[in-house]
């Protein structure tokens, strides 16, 4: 059975953009409307500087982008390697 390969850069960028924008907007919404602070606090336990301020939301969004970019790239790379052996 032939499996399709996944383009690692495309998957990494897609996941990075989604995670970065989601994290950025969650922090901004918690700053503006004072809702979702427990979620921001939970995410802030992973990203050290992430808190509901404008500057820290931007930094948290960038860190989420980079983390998801690397994670998506590695996941696609491992998937492609495993597809060669199946």
Overview of this structure, please?
With about 90 residues, this protein is mostly helical. The chain has one domain. It is about 75% helix and about 0% strand. The protein contains 3 helices and no strands. The protein has helices spanning about 10-35, 35-45, 55-85.
Inertia-based shape:
elongated
What is the radius of gyration computed over CA atoms, rounded to a whole number of angstroms? 16 Å
* Estimated structural class: mainly alpha
* Count of helical stretches: 3
Helix content: over 70%
Tell me the count of domains.
Answer: 1
Uncertain spans:
none
Order of H and E elements: HHH
Major sheet characteristics? none
Question: What's the rounded overall pLDDT mean?
Answer: 91
**Head-to-tail CA distance between termini:** 8 Å
Summarize the model shown.
The protein has 86 residues and is an all-alpha fold. It has three helices and no strands.
Helix and strand topology:
Layout: H1 8-33, H2 37-44, H3 54-85
Helix pairs in contact: 1-2, 1-3
């Amino acid at each position: 059975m032939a499996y399709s390969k996944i383009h690692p850069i495309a998957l990494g960028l897609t996941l990075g953009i989604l995670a970065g924008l989601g994290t950025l907007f969650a922090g901004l919404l918690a700053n503006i409307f004072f809702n979702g602070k427990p979620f921001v606090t939970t995410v802030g336990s992973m990203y050290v500087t992430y808190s509901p301020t404008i500057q820290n939301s931007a930094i948290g969004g960038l860190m989420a982008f980079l983390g998801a970019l690397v994670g998506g790239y590695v996941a696609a790379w491992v998937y492609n390697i495993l597809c060669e052996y199946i």
